[in-house]
Amino acid sequence: MAKLQILDHPLIQHKLSLIRQKDKGAKEFRELVEEIAMLMAYEVTRHLPLKEVEIETPVTTATTKMLEGKKLAVVAILRAGLGMVNGFVKLIPAARVGHIGLYRDPDTLEPVEYFSKLPQDVPEREIILIDPMLATGGSASAAISLLKNKGARLIKLVVLVAAPEGVERIQKDHPDIEIYTAALDQGLNDHAYIVPGLGDAGDRFFGTK
Asked: Is 108 a catalytic residue?
């Protein structure tokens, strides 16, 4: 069963409450989403391996620790996922960045791929798949399937807000995937919006509502 982790750090929860507020404009919304993403990146990368290195400080030589060089890729589900990219790459500048574009078929309501651009060495990288909202779970599940078809073996899904329906979909379709979220909300309304949620993250981020 997919493992769900709710990141309840006080700064994450505080900033999440701010972006939930409907009167936040696009500029402030963008800044807060980036800040939350950075804080989540800190939590999601706790497992990264370290190695001992010899360095020269202004005082003496010392044995300290640095990242061992594990290959990472941050993959955004378009378009709202773009809003979280900078928060991750500011902390992990060596990470490659990929993009997956999906739209919902108006008849079947199933996600359809329209764009995919990923690092060539996907099988060698740990993938952090990012999208602000995990609502029905359809897009995230399709993106995970696409990554697995490209050879990805280790994928973490990171979202700002999740609905139980979306979590259940990922747990059913991809029980090996770890899910990280800042909040598990009540559920979905008749229009498949997360309640209480934060509205359409893409429209609010890009100012297109």
From this structure: yes
CA-to-CA distance for 123 and 126, rounded, in angstroms? Answer: 8
Which of 55, 40, 28, 60 has the alpha carbon at shortest distance from 205?
Answer: 28
Structural contact between residues 197 and 185, judged by C-beta atoms closer than 8 angstroms: yes
Q: What is the pLDDT of residue 202?
A: 85
Is pTM beyond 0.85? Reply is yes
CA distance 164 to 65: 39
Task: Confirm whether 200 is a catalytic residue.
Answer: yes
- Residue 162, domain CATH: 3.40.50.2020
Question: How long is the chain?
Answer: 209
- 96 in active site: no
List CB contacts of 82: < 8 A, sequence separation 6 or more.
76, 99, 205
Partners of 103 in beta bridges: 112
Q: How many domains does the chain contain in total?
A: 1
Domain that residue 12 falls in: 3-206
Binding residues: 79, 104, 131-139, 194, 199-201
For the chain, residues with pLDDT lower than 70 are 1-2, 109, 209
* CA angle centred on 182, ends 11 and 99, rounded to 5°: 110
Catalytic-role residue among 46, 61, 108, 190: 108
User: What's residue 209's pLDDT?
Assistant: 66
Q: Exactly one of 104, 105, 107, 153 is catalytic; which is it? A: 104
Q: What is the rounded radius of gyration, in angstroms, for the C-alpha atoms of the chain? A: 18
User: CA-to-CA distance for 94 and 108, rounded, in angstroms?
Assistant: 39
